[in-house]
Amino acid sequence: MSLTPQVSDILKNYESDNPGTKANLVRLLNTGKLAGTGKLVILPVDQGFEHGPARSFAANPAGYDPHYHFSLAIEAGLNAFAAPIGMLEAGASSFAGQIPLILKCNSSNSLATEKDQAVTGTVPDALRLGCSAIGFTIYPGSEYCFKQMNELRELAEEAKAAGLVVVVWSYPRGPMLDKAGETAVDICAYAAHMAAEAGAHIIKVKPPTDALSLPAAKKVYEAEKIDISSMEARVRHIVQSSFAGRRILIFSGGEHADTKSLLETIRAIKAGGANGSIIGRNSFQRPKKEALALLSEITDIFKG
Amino acid sequence: MSLTPQVSDILKNYESDNPGTKANLVRLLNTGKLAGTGKLVILPVDQGFEHGPARSFAANPAGYDPHYHFSLAIEAGLNAFAAPIGMLEAGASSFAGQIPLILKCNSSNSLATEKDQAVTGTVPDALRLGCSAIGFTIYPGSEYCFKQMNELRELAEEAKAAGLVVVVWSYPRGPMLDKAGETAVDICAYAAHMAAEAGAHIIKVKPPTDALSLPAAKKVYEAEKIDISSMEARVRHIVQSSFAGRRILIFSGGEHADTKSLLETIRAIKAGGANGSIIGRNSFQRPKKEALALLSEITDIFKG
Amino acid sequence: MSLTPQVSDILKNYESDNPGTKANLVRLLNTGKLAGTGKLVILPVDQGFEHGPARSFAANPAGYDPHYHFSLAIEAGLNAFAAPIGMLEAGASSFAGQIPLILKCNSSNSLATEKDQAVTGTVPDALRLGCSAIGFTIYPGSEYCFKQMNELRELAEEAKAAGLVVVVWSYPRGPMLDKAGETAVDICAYAAHMAAEAGAHIIKVKPPTDALSLPAAKKVYEAEKIDISSMEARVRHIVQSSFAGRRILIFSGGEHADTKSLLETIRAIKAGGANGSIIGRNSFQRPKKEALALLSEITDIFKG
Amino acid sequence: MSLTPQVSDILKNYESDNPGTKANLVRLLNTGKLAGTGKLVILPVDQGFEHGPARSFAANPAGYDPHYHFSLAIEAGLNAFAAPIGMLEAGASSFAGQIPLILKCNSSNSLATEKDQAVTGTVPDALRLGCSAIGFTIYPGSEYCFKQMNELRELAEEAKAAGLVVVVWSYPRGPMLDKAGETAVDICAYAAHMAAEAGAHIIKVKPPTDALSLPAAKKVYEAEKIDISSMEARVRHIVQSSFAGRRILIFSGGEHADTKSLLETIRAIKAGGANGSIIGRNSFQRPKKEALALLSEITDIFKG
Amino acid sequence: MSLTPQVSDILKNYESDNPGTKANLVRLLNTGKLAGTGKLVILPVDQGFEHGPARSFAANPAGYDPHYHFSLAIEAGLNAFAAPIGMLEAGASSFAGQIPLILKCNSSNSLATEKDQAVTGTVPDALRLGCSAIGFTIYPGSEYCFKQMNELRELAEEAKAAGLVVVVWSYPRGPMLDKAGETAVDICAYAAHMAAEAGAHIIKVKPPTDALSLPAAKKVYEAEKIDISSMEARVRHIVQSSFAGRRILIFSGGEHADTKSLLETIRAIKAGGANGSIIGRNSFQRPKKEALALLSEITDIFKG
What we know:
The structure is a homopentamer of 304-residue chains.
Chain A: H1 5-12, H2 19-29, E1 40-44, H3 47-51, H4 53-57, H5 66-75, E2 80-83, H6 85-89, E3 101-104, E4 106-107, E5 118-119, H7 123-128, E6 133-138, H8 145-161, E7 165-170, H9 179-182, H10 185-197, E8 202-205, H11 215-223, H12 231-241, E9 248-252, H13 259-271, E10 276-278, H14 281-284, H15 288-303
Helix pairs in contact in A: 10-12, 12-13, 13-15
């Protein structure tokens, strides 16, 4: 199968990567309903680790079973399924070759006393489980940010040599940022740019608000009249901050969205030129049928 | 000998493991009185390290001798014997091949100034001593939890490559948890789930109370009407939190149980669908004859 | 092509380096408009990482695209382009062989809580991207200085063995230094000397003021009547402090310079006997045509 | 030479060790006046490192010379000589093969600001110097105890693979222990047990007093009526706490003992069933002739 | 050339070292005016790193050039030249084989916030630069002492295996020591002894005063009537504390000495039986002719 122009164009941006990594990028882009469009929707399931099992799965108890999520991602025609090592081990063989896997290599939890994460997965783990990519979270602004970037460097160097794709969750937090600052548009753009500079192939950030957090940045946004008035404009700014669109950029769905506002955000992400979404609790916390319907709407938006 | 359906079903859940690890899982499941039932009772003896020799063994001084515990586990028809490196070295040759061994790779002690553990055993140690598994304790909630999970990752990656089984003791403690919180049902379920996500093959937690500790979790338990009214229901919830029963789950006996309440707990563990128990002080702190009688009652419950 | 006397003389100062490193020094010195003169002008683009994308690139949005900077450096006839791993990966193949690359191996950012940097690039990264050199920042005076020097030692040992050039950004800061102290001439000279002692091939410091910061140093400067009255004299002193000119010494442009004062500083750097300049925001934050004109003036000064 | 029954019996307790370690155990047990008895007297000389040279050697200045101690141990017919790397290097060739050597791998000093030790010797050092064993100190109760146990694990794993014997000095100290607590019998027994659990072949503790330090332990000692009324009884309890005598247990001489009380302690150590003594300052701080006389009395007690 | 008896006698003290290290010891002892005498005078130039370039070299600006120091050491007929990696790299090829080199592997600086050092050179660096020895500073009494001793162990193990000599600068400092304590005779003797115990081949300490710093040591010095009344007597005591003269012991010149008092100290060092001196600022901070004259006087004293 020859590549579509969209995938071909994206691939050109990864000019320094080896054929192994390029092949895995193609796997991610050529799977599911969005195959060939250059767009991605990914199912991430690390919420049990981060928030606890009942808070994540009690609303739809089928989700306690790792196989449910593999199936959901496959049936919904998504591009990839991302999870920590334990959940992937529980289904990687049953669903081998049916959907690209992303090994989420570090995780935090709600009992933790510090704004850090444990590294629970490695590149050899990703390889033996047949993954196409590793995932890693950094907290720019946290007192552990340099440590996390050092860990990312080690994992990314090994992953790239092994032909894997590197996905970076860039979630700002820490003493310089209040709650509003964590999703301020200057901070989200900075978070995306840091991930790009640190060598990510795929960048995941949160949908930004129109707040501006760093005074020195605010001055520039106002002086240069950067358009941050709509979600679409903000997304476009973050695409630009990701090496002028040379890096695949995807957004999380947000925690408290109702379906309508979620779909509005998805439309803005599409309109702003980003590559897609990661949809976790918004999909697996409702019955499968409803989840498939919602994910169908989302992939339709990105296709359209 | 072909596998029983119970063991065969359990084995399917470890679909990503190599034949070496599968063989060691079979060794654990096909040893002793519970062979073939899919249930396990394990004798752990690290209390001398954790609490001191007299507090552990003075009540039944035969227990000062490591050989006593090997014999006790073998005569009682248990599935495995778990201990730190020194105790295993003292008997691993005399009892070679007679019972599966679990090398407890980290240990704390009662003189320690911090909620952490020292790593005293390694995967090469486990292999040269003929062990089937390594054991490792994490303290979710402790300020050392990320460090411990990082240590677990390194040991587990090496153990899985070497065909060993990974048993995780998941014991929550730390600044966010008071004494009651350490055994609250939401916390125990979370502890089991974290061990599963971190890649444990076998998970050991404490029997949960009906307390709910994290406010955000409590809200969900109440909204979703999760049944935590009986020990059996709570055990079932923790089985569910262990990847919907895809991971072997065993419970410790608890410190102050009299025999009657201990057996009640065992019955609830069985009824709730968990795989077994770890019985330490409740067995080796009484005369051998009484211990064998008690362990016989316990294995009978799991068999029945 | 045989070497010019200027390049040949410089090369003699690197008498302990292997032919690989010498070849890369020649690549740096024999590229662009200043080829053969023994002078260098380098384009560094890590400001997006250090200060955020909008503060760095909004004034000239073409700069959001990594390819823009490769092109700018090549068209301006500069000696090298320096950037973090992500930006280099985005263009290293398109522009392969057209300009020597310096992989900036560590970076800080404006959300950081500590005066440190993350190591985001490695020697294998530099080699696979076709770089001639690695770049590394140390903060003499910071509580992380020993840590950074240790990291530099590891990277430099590996880089020298691999035939790469080691460029050290030596930027003093920390509890003993107020803002004025960071650019005081005694501190700049000390910063250059530390980089030389630590094994740098090329040293980058900031243009010094005539302030004297350390009391013990001030006494010596006054007693020995060291001339620090003009920028030219101060540059000459720092050249002397870099092993009497045996190490290539270049200066940054400074943050708030208008074009006129920037060119004055460049003239003083030339007159004082240093080897060149690193020009970042002063070039890429204006339209390309203006940037090329400015860089042309600068290279003309160094040639003249 | 065939083994005596005593040595043969001891060797059986080291059933998990390789022939190399067994051979070195035999070397330790079959050297000197106590050869074949299963008893050991060892000369340790690390007091210069721990307390300074004058405090250690001025009383008998011959002791400034490392060769003096090799000679003293050999002439006295002791089982082994233990010292840090520098002192062993100074005589290991002159006295090669004349007495088993123990490389003391970590040391503290009287200028130290923390209750820790530096690791100054390694397993390769022990091997190249012809040593039969490594020695390592842990401080149970210290805030560095887990770190020290981790260091011990690494050294012990390497030593056992190389056929060396592992001797652990287990000296409790730290915030939970006052001066009396450091030698309380429950604490000494616990210290010996921890060393056994951590995999020591030979355990060295201090002679215990009849104090009981941990309240939870005290309760058990009283309830179980453990006999701690005499030094002999206490030694017997510590032998029991060392895996019921399966590990070689030796005692230090104590700092302020006069000769008479020292010999009384030695007799109690013998009577209580321990394997021997380490005699440092009590031997080398007196003239050689007196030291030989004293050591002769001590070996006679153990022989008798 | 056969060895002189003096060198031959010294060599016997290094009985555990391999022929490579012995050959390098001979190189150090058989170079320059003192060849064959068993005495050494070494030129160390790390003051630019430690105190800054102007404070070190402005008094005699020829010293800004690394080649000056190589020449000075060679022309003065010294035994060796010691410097950090950068300074050695700048001249090691021009002066290859003309004088033994000591790579000073760690260095502090005057902007540092902690009593520690950075490791800037390695054993592979020493080998590729043709060095005969590595040099390393420890600060007994500092909170970094154990860390430094651990670093020394790693470097020394590697250096000895590679046939290099290990020179230890032992400079006490830290919370337990006031300024006078740092050079008190008990502390200097202890510092020399620690370096010997840690495995140094050559020990460098500062000339001691007649102060006694540690109360427990003071008691012994007075009780044993250790002669500390003259510099000669104190030097003799420190020779004794260095394994009764089995380790080469050299002294620094001291910071504020005028030439006369410096020469007096040198005479006392000779008379006390030490092996030589390290002369840095006292030589290179005066014009070359004067420096050569002074160094000639010093070597004459050691020869005489």
